[in-house]
Structures are given as structure tokens and as C-alpha cells.
Design goal:
Elements (H helix, E strand, L loop, with lengths): L2 H16 L8 E3 L19 E5 L3 E4 L11 E4 L9 E4 L2 E3 L4 E9 L7 E7 L3 E7 L6 E8 L4 E3 L1 E5 L8 E9 L2 H17 L1
Length: 194
């Protein structure tokens, strides 16, 4: 083996270990497996998320259970009174593929109105305001990319306090191939008409 080949292999090995791990798509998360299925205040040991700011609580299953029968879910403003942010590992998105980001948010009974900032790199950015009386509500966003793109997903409770918005049922799923082809054909037809 030549010096150049050895050096190139060493560089590739270094890059492979230095690159951040990418999360797998499809991705689904309902938080039910966290903490052995039991709630905990100021929870940080998520399997697929990092608490990147403030604090969050994992609640439900009889522990501060505002939505009985819905398993575990995340209170995005933990018991420290600091608004929390949870962030996933980056996902690798393929050009031309259509994806759907879905999640469920609800108000926190007896708490204040909360605003949640949802960010998936430059692909999805939204701000949702939830009064405490709002029940669990499903949200979804369709998107695609033009070039290979890595992006992490985050949910941030904007207001401080110890009762944030409730998050569960997060998913990122590629559209079925047939639907993706039809959507791309529709985009092409629209461009031809112009």
C-alpha cells in the first residue's frame, strides 16, 4: 500500500468518526418508552433527543397526566421554570423526495398560553400558540429538498414557566414513491404551463 493510499484511508476513517451520527428516516417518536414508561421532572435522558436549552418534563401515565390514556408526553417548560428546547440528531434528506413532518401539540391545563417554535433546519419553521384549553392537536408539514440536506428538528417553548405546551407523536416520513412521483409530475406540469 502506497503512502498516499494509507494517508487517504486514514483521512476517511477520521472523517467517518468525526461526522455526527444521522437519525434514521422514517422517524417516529411517541415518548412512551422513555424512563421505563414513567414520568420524571426535569428529564434529560431522551433516547432520540437532547435538551438543548432550559428544561423539560416527561409526564403522563398517571404522573401529572393532563391527557389520560395518551401515554407519555413532553411538557416543554420543565419544573425549573426555564422554557425548554429539545433537539434531535440531524436527518439526511434526499433531493426530490417528499417528506411529511407530523407532531401533536396540546395546551397545558391550568397553565398559561404557550408559543412553540418548530424548526427543521431551513425546511420547516413555524410558531404555534396554544391556549391552556387547547386539546391535543395534530400538525403536519410537507416539504422536499433540491440538494442533499442534513437538518435537526427542534421544539422550543418560547415562554418561561413550569407549565409549557405538551408534545407527543413526532414523525418524519417519506411520502410513498407513487405519491412523490405524482407530486413531481404536478410541479413539472405547472412549470410547463407558465
Amino acid at each position: 500500500m502506497s503512502f498516499r493510499t494509507t494517508k487517504a484511508l486514514a483521512l476517511l476513517a477520521t472523517l467517518a468518526f468525526a461526522a455526527p451520527a444521522l437519525a434514521q428516516i422514517p422517524f417516529t417518536e411517541n415518548f412512551d418508552a422513555e424512563n421505563g414508561g414513567t414520568g420524571q421532572l426535569n428529564y434529560t435522558a431522551f433516547a432520540n433527543w437532547t435538551v438543548s436549552a432550559g428544561s423539560v418534563d416527561i409526564i403522563g401515565n398517571g404522573f401529572f397526566d393532563f391527557y389520560s390514556g395518551n401515554g407519555l408526553y413532553v411538557d416543554l417548560a420543565g419544573s425549573t421554570g426555564q422554557a425548554g428546547t429539545i433537539t434531535s440528531a440531524p436527518f439526511a434528506f434526499v433531493p426530490g423526495q417528499i417528506y411529511t413532518l407530523g407532531f401533536t401539540l396540546g395546551g397545558n391545563t391550568g397553565g398559561p398560553t404557550n408559543t412553540v417554535a418548530v424548526l427543521l433546519g431551513s425546511l420547516v419553521s413555524d410558531s404555534l400558540t396554544l391556549p391552556p384549553s387547547q386539546g391535543l392537536t395534530n400538525y403536519s408539514y410537507n416539504f422536499s429538498v433540491l440538494a442533499p440536506t442534513n437538518a435537526a428538528l427542534s421544539f422550543r417553548n418560547v415562554e418561561d414557566g413550569d407549565r409549557g405546551a405538551i408534545l407527543t407523536n413526532v414523525s418524519i416520513i417519506p411520502a410513498p414513491a407513487a405519491a412523490a412521483m405524482l407530486a413531481l409530475a404536478g410541479i413539472a406540469a405547472t412549470r410547463r404551463r407558465r
